[in-house]
């Protein structure tokens, strides 16, 4: 059974800023906005981009080497899922003040249910979904509705 997200954790997920490397090698920051507001350019040729990590399962902090090992395993499983290493890109999810960051992967157009299954198996509460029309916190608990947001994208620098 997936762990339960508390209101405090939910707020942290909703506030997270995503730092992504896109397939064209650009580095961007995707920050949350109010639902329905999308500002900036969504990458061409992509339907959906997901951000997933294996770090800090069940939101319990682990040491860097343990998180790195967990993410190495996740990367291998993602490669099996999508088949093309160019669809798995470096990413980080960070608190707005940058004090908390988790190394992650941006995955281009994977099967959503298979990706959520991977997230669940790695003890994750949620993944992020980014499309031309929304950014969403997609919870691994099937009874929980996605939290849809708007987004603003800028050059990560």
The computed structural class is alpha+beta
Spatial ordering of strands, largest sheet: 1-2-9-8-7-4-6-5
Q: Low-confidence segments, ≥5 residues, pLDDT <50?
A: none
Which shape, going by the Cα principal axes?
A: globular
Largest sheet: 8 strands, antiparallel, barrel
User: How far is the N terminus from the C terminus?
Assistant: 39 Å
* Number of E-type strands: 9
Mean of residue pLDDT?
Answer: 94
Note the total helix count: 3
Determine the strand fraction and express it as a percent band.
Answer: 25-35%
Helix content: 10-25%
Helices and strands, in N-to-C order? HEEEEHEEHEEE
What is the C-alpha radius of gyration, as a whole number of Å? 14 Å
Features:
157 residues; eight-stranded antiparallel barrel; 9 strands; 33% strand
Topology, pairings included?
Layout: H1 7-15, E1 17-21, E2 27-33, E3 38-39, E4 49-52, H2 64-82, E5 88-94, E6 101-108, H3 112-121, E7 126-130, E8 135-139, E9 147-155
Parallel strand pairs: 3-9
Antiparallel strand pairs: 1-2, 1-5, 2-9, 4-6, 4-7, 5-6, 7-8, 8-9
């Amino acid at each position: 059974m997936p762990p339960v997200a508390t209101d405090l954790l939910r707020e942290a997920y909703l506030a997270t800023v995503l730092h992504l490397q896109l397939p064209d090698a650009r580095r961007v920051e995707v920050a949350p906005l109010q639902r329905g507001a999308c500002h900036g350019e969504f990458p061409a040729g992509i339907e959906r981009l997901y951000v997933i990590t294996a770090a800090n399962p069940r939101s319990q902090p682990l040491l860097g080497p343990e998180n790195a090992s967990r993410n190495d395993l996740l990367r291998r499983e993602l490669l099996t899922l999508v088949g093309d290493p160019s669809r798995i890109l470096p990413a980080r999810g960070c608190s707005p003040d940058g004090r908390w960051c988790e190394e992650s992967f941006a995955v281009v157009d994977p099967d959503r249910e298979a990706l959520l299954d991977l997230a669940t198996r790695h003890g994750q509460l949620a993944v992020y979904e980014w499309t031309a029309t929304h950014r969403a916190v997609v919870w691994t608990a099937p009874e929980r509705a996605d939290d849809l947001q708007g987004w603003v994208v800028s050059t990560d620098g």
